[in-house]
Design goal:
binds zinc ion; TIM Barrel; 8 strands; 332 residues; alpha/beta; eight-stranded parallel sheet
Length: 332
């Protein structure tokens, strides 16, 4: 297991660039920072477990700093390039689907969206050529965006499919569980269009305790995604477990991220969650979500589950191999 190549299906551009690279990008662009010292900067853009305890804290760091610093073609190109190289060097990740929202990198329309997308593709091409890895981009729609903006993101994903965009995602804080059905329905046509165009589809849901398995059920019913980001709350819902097993929808599990945001309280809870998924035939993969924001690597995520004996070696191998199988990147 420690030698085998890995595939990361769930990793965000906004949470996976090393602080020293972000520092370099910020200075290169003349970005006005609120701090003068490098270590203060590190504190600003990374998670401090004593201060940042929820998913909202994580999203705030991304929104206030990382996305802004990454908002230029040069910054996006370097970010994508550096992430893919680091994943390969650090964890021998030979296949990676990197996700981001291009509309959160263009300064609210001040920068041309196509320039941002081309820059991401250039960064990806360079890294793939240098390291011999395979990669694809996933464009994230945002729950807080209006329908028109999300439709443009889907249009762009379809337009750039032949260049290396492999799928779409829906990200952002989920709504009140009582409104979940209504909330998710808004994206049904966009997801159907992306699917019909041959793109892979995935949705962030069932991550925090507030959303419960209802979010997973609503997403499966309305959006019919190939995969679900997180989905850990489904372990507490008989209906969600049945629906996941029936549809074969693959979960993108990100252990350290969930522990950091307190979405999952401790490793023992993961023992229950992943054990339940394995028992009930729910397919899942292991991913990072964000290597630097979560202070982890894909190799470390596997080691974490192995050393705590959360999963057996056979189960870990199943998750490792499934990531390649469930990837939106077409087989070599
Ligand atoms: Zn995520």
């Amino acid at each position: 297991m420690s030698e085998l190549p890995l595939c990361d299906l769930h990793i965000h551009v906004g949470s996976s660039v090393a602080p020293h690279i972000m520092w370099s990008i910020a200075h290169q662009q003349g970005f006005k920072l609120p701090v003068k010292d490098y270590w203060e900067f590190v504190d600003l853009i990374t998670v401090n477990p004593r201060r940042d305890r929820t998913l909202a804290d994580y999203l705030r760091i991304l929104h206030e700093w990382t996305e802004k610093i990454q908002s230029s073609p040069a910054a996006v190109e370097r970010s994508v390039y550096e992430i893919i190289g680091k994943e390969y060097r650090g964890s021998r990740v030979e296949q990676v689907e990197l996700r981001f929202n291009p509309m959160k990198r263009n300064e609210h329309g001040a920068r041309d969206l196509d320039h941002i997308i081309h820059a991401a593709l250039r960064g990806m091409d360079r890294a793939c050529l240098e390291y011999g890895v395979r990669a694809g981009l996933i464009f994230c729609l945002a729950r807080e965006f209006d329908a028109e903006l999300n439709a443009i993101i889907v249009d762009k994903a379809i337009m750039y499919q032949s260049r290396g965009v492999v799928g779409i995602d829906l990200a952002g804080t989920e709504q009140d569980p009582m409104e979940l059905s209504d909330g998710v329905e808004r994206y049904a046509r966009l997801f159907a269009r992306a699917h019909d165009a041959g793109l892979g589809t995935t949705v962030h849901t069932g991550e925090t305790a507030a959303t419960s398995g209802d979010g997973v059920i609503a997403v499966l019913d309305q959006l019919k995604p190939d995969r679900i980001g997180h989905g850990v709350r489904a372990a507490y819902s008989e209906t969600a477990l049945d629906r996941l097993a029936d549809t074969g929808c693959v979960l993108e599990i990100c252990p350290t991220s969930n522990l950091h945001t307190r979405a999952v309280r401790h490793l023992e809870e993961f023992r229950f969650i992943l054990g339940t998924f394995a028992d009930r035939g729910v397919r899942f993969t292991v991913n990072t979500d964000g290597t630097y924001l979560c202070s982890t690597s894909l190799r470390r995520e596997f080691r974490l589950l192995a050393e705590a004996e959360i999963l057996s070696l056979a189960e870990l191998e199943t998750a490792r191999a499934l990531a390649f199988e469930a990837s939106f990147i077409s087989p070599a």
